[in-house]
Amino acid sequence: MATLNVAEVVHELGRLGATDRAVAFRLLAKDRAVEVFEDLDPALQAELVASLHGHAAAIFAALDPDDRAALLDEVPAGVARRLLAALPPDEHAATTALLGYPEDSAGRRMSPEVVAVPVGTTVGDTIAQVRAAGDDAETVYVVPVVADGRRVRGVVSLRRLVLTDPATPVDAVMSPATTVRATDDAEHAANVVRDGGFVGVPVVDGEDRLVGVLTVDDAMRVLEAEDDEDSARTGGAEPLRRPYLSVSVLGLVRSRVVWLLMLIVAASLTVGVQSYFEDELAQVVALALFVPLLIGTGGNAGSQAATTVVRASAVGDVRTGDVARVVGREMLTGLLLGLTLATVGVGPAMLVAGPAIGLVLALTVVAVCTLATTVGSSVPLLAKRVGIDPAIVSAPFISTFVDTTGLIVYFSIAKAVLGI
C-alpha cells in the first residue's frame, strides 16, 4: 500500500475482512496510519480499535474532536471511557463537549478548534493569529470575527486577508456571517454549507456565541451518509453504514429481513382483496390475466413519485408546506401518465379479452396511476411533517399500498362496467 494515496488505502481496507484489515493497518507508518484512520467509516474504526490494543489510545488522541465523537458512538462504553481517560485534559474537554450535543446535531459534527479574532483586530494581527494557531485549527480558510462574549459578527476569508493591507481593521473587510446552531439537525446544517458554497460555517449556541465550525468536508460526509440512508430505505433495507464487502452475510440479512417481514404482512392485504372478489374472478376469469400488469404499473408509478419527492425534499427543493402544490402537480402527472398508458394498452387488451375488458383495463390504469402518484407524493411529505423519515414510508410501502387499493379500484370498475 506504500504507492497508494490515503483515499485509495481507505478504499482497499474497506474491501478486506476484519483480520486482514487489522494486519494491513498495522503495516502503515504512524503518521500515515492516523490519516487513514481519520477517513475510515466509524464502524471500521471501532473494529480496528479492538485490534490495536496499546496503539489505540495514541491514534485516538491524534484525531480531531469531531472524529473522536463519531468513533465513541461505535465502541462499547468501557472502551470509550478508557479512550477518553487517556486524553490530555484540554482534548478530553473538547471531545466531551461535543458528546453533550444530540447525536444527529450540527454540534456533534462541528470542530471546536477554530481561529476567531475580535472586532477591531487588524488584518496583520489576524494573519499572525492564523499562523500561530493554524496547525491546531480544523480550517483557516474562513475566520469568524467576534464581539464581546464570542458573539459572531462576521467572517473573513483567508484570501481577503492576504489581499488586504495589514493595517486595515478586519471588521472593515469581513462579510456577513451565515451561521447554524449547534442544536440544528446535522443534515440541515450540511445543506447550508453546500447550498451557500461555503468552506466552513460558524456554529453558535442559543445565545449566538461561537462554539465551533462546520467545515465543507464534514458537511459532505453528513450528506453522503444521509443519501446512503435514504437510498437504502427507499429500496426496503437498513443502511449498511460501512463498505459492502466488510459486511458479513448475517449483517446483510439483518439489514433486510425486518423490512421484508413487514412488507409480507402488508402484501397479505392484496391476497385479502383478491379473496374478497373471488366470485367476480370466477365469473370473468379474464380479469385475473391483468392483475400482475395493474399491480406492477401502480407500484412503479407510486415508487417514481415517492422517490422524486423524497429526493426533492432532501435537497430542499420542496418543503412540508408545499404538500398541496406537490400533490396537485403529481395528481395531474398521474392522470396524464394513465391516459398515455391506457391509450397504448387498450388495443392489445381488447384483442386478448374483448372490448368490455379493454374498457375496464383502460379506466383502471388511469385511476391507478392517478392514485399512485397522489399517494406517492403526499405520504413522504406528511411523514416528514410529523417527524418520520420520509424514506421509511416511501417506495416499498407505497407500492404495497397502491397494489391493494389498485385491486379494489380494478374490481369495483369491473363490477360496474361488466355488471357482475
From TrEMBL:
Bilayer topology: Multi-pass membrane protein
InterPro entries: CBS_dom, CBS_dom_sf, Mg_transptr_MgtE_intracell_dom, MgtE_N_sf, MgtE_transporter, SLC41_membr_dom, SLC41_membr_dom_sf
Primary location: membrane
Compartments where found: Cell membrane; Membrane
Family annotation (Gene3D superfamilies): CBS-domain, MgtE N-terminal domain-like, SLC41 divalent cation transporters, integral membrane domain
Residue stretches spanning the membrane: 257-277, 283-310, 331-351, 357-379, 391-413
The CBS domain, residue ranges: 110-172, 173-229
Annotated SUPFAM superfamilies: CBS-domain pair, MgtE membrane domain-like, MgtE N-terminal domain-like
One Pfam family from the record: CBS
Keyword Protein transport: no
Function: Acts as a magnesium transporter.
Self-association and partners: Homodimer.
Family of this protein: Belongs to the SLC41A transporter family.
Name of the protein this chain belongs to: Magnesium transporter MgtE
Species this chain originates from: Cellulomonas dongxiuzhuiae
